[in-house]
Input
Amino acid sequence: MVLDAQIKAQLEEYLKLLEGDIELKVSAGDDSVSRDMLALTDELTSMSPKITVKNAELKRTPSFSVNRPQEETGITFSGVPLGHEFTSLVLALLQVSGRPPKIDDTMVEQIKNISGEYHFETFVSLSCHNCPDVVQALNIMSVINPGITHTMIDGAAFKEEAEEKNVMAVPAVYLDGEFFSGGRITLEEIVAKISDGPSPEEFTNRDPYDVLVVGGGPAGASAAIYAARKGIRTGVVAERFGGQVLDTMTIENFISVKNTEGPKFAASLEEHVKDYDIDIMNLQRVKGLEKNDGMFELELDNGGVLKSKSAIISTGARWRQIGVPGEEEFKNKGVAYCPHCDGPLFEGKDVAVIGGGNSGVEAAIDLAGIVQNVTVLEFADELKADEVLQERLNSLPNVNVKTNAQTTEITGDENVNGITYIDRESGEEQHIALQGVFVQIGLVPNTEWLDADVETNRIGEIITNKQGSTNVPGLFAAGDVTDCPNNQIIISMGDGANASLGAFDYLIRN
Output
């Protein structure tokens, strides 16, 4: 039995929701993955009379496709979709059976209107928390549009193919055999990449807002909700709704929620925002912000311009890069930023973690259970992580810690093959042969697009007062983009509410 009793009981309940018959076309061999896949498909057929299995010859073995009878739906799982991908399997079964996916009608129409043929393949690891969102988005597109197909490929089950394609970070999406995208990408982003986006005029012709929130993370969502509750015209512009939370594995410190995952939390934020009369403009990168005649003008990358009486900057922060030769060249070729997602791809290999804070030490602990050896490089003379994490790290036999280590280069040919650092005590240059480097050195605020008139500190964080106001009247800021000393989701959401109330106060006084 592949599924444990609890998961099997849950699955039986989901399968009661099937609306039509499903045919699984199975291509299996005599290997262990094939045996696990056959055990899974046998369990599925035993739980619902609407599911049948048919032997077939698919592109990869072991694989199975999910279809309506007498119809190729275009969804294939190469490997066994358990772990984080089990939800992808359940949703595929429901949606292929006729149960509509939970997306906006406008998005359904956009997908239907995509012309041509698109054959997607996504390499995943079953421990990757970002991969299911990509798999599920592409599966939805395959269900809606007959010209689109999608195959999920477990990189561990098809290791040779993953290595041949030089897949060193997941999810890795290929379109018609060519690399399409790496890392988490939303349904909206995929559709935008293969179809025409909105014109600049669609934004420029909109009426001015009372409050325009720039950024769709926890701070931005909170600010937008608080503004809308005041009954004023509110808009949100976001490059990626949810922000960095989408890349967070586990959230255990949001008070009243014992445990959740970043993508799930971000989806709840968006759902809450959509309960209000808020104009959400997702997948729009901002280019600049000016104040003319008392009105803020936000320029977008596509040339559109939005106007508002007040604005709240909540563009958050991103992973800080070390900025040494080799980092950019070998990104996704051995240089990674998410140990949860990409760690399994380095099984049995030697890796380094740059950074000795909580995130770096946690990454090293996670990786130690997968890789052959982990070297932690910390610039300072001691680790900065919590004592309990350091104790756990020091108990692991395959972890080496090097303090006073200044990374100077990540070396490689096609992929990473080593890291060079200077011992700051002796001044000597050292080189370690390895195959992966995980960068965990904190965050940098997303403020490079802002006008120089907005006051920031030495690292680019926006300086705000206790009302969330900047030095520019009517311009507010909230969350990780500000000089707030602690970058926490719950603090960002409070910041967003505070800035929104400050903006409302500004509006009624001006």
Q: What stands out?
A: The domain at 201-318+443-509 is CATH 3.50.50.60 (FAD/NAD(P)-binding domain). The CA atoms of residues 117 and 147 lie 5 Å apart. The two ends are 68 Å apart (CA to CA).
